[in-house]
Amino acid sequence: MSVLTSTIPKNPIARLLGALPARVAEEKDRAIQQELMAVGLWQHYRQNIAKQEVDLGRMAIRGANIIKIHLGVSDDFFTKGREVQDEEIQRIIAPYYEQVLKN
Q: How would residue 9 be classed by pLDDT, with cut points 50, 70 and 90?
């Protein structure tokens, strides 16, 4: 494994947040944390979902809905494999970088 690929997070939520502009990622991460805390799911997320290798299918539905709202992912992001997750990540980050690529 190369140094480059070894630094890419395996957790799809971390990959998505890492691909967003830093300010946007911080705002979304903070909003997700606050909402998960408000419904009592922060510890579940922190202990079970925020790990490097995780089966997102194990996530509580209410928590997944919070992440879907804040990150713009679909149900498939949680239930399908890495290929689908990577496609969704590309779709979500594209608008943030389109203007940069045009210049």
A: confident
Which residues, 6 or more positions from 96, have their beta carbon under 8 angstroms from its beta carbon? 20, 21, 24
Does residue 93 contact residue 20 with C-beta atoms inside 8 Å? yes
Greatest distance between any 2 Cα atoms in the chain = 44
Residues 68 and 75 sit within 8 Å (Cβ to Cβ): yes
Structure tokens belonging to residue 32: 């997700």
How many residues does this entry show for the chain? Answer: 103
Query: Model-level pTM?
Result: 0.83
Residue 78 in 3-state DSSP? helix
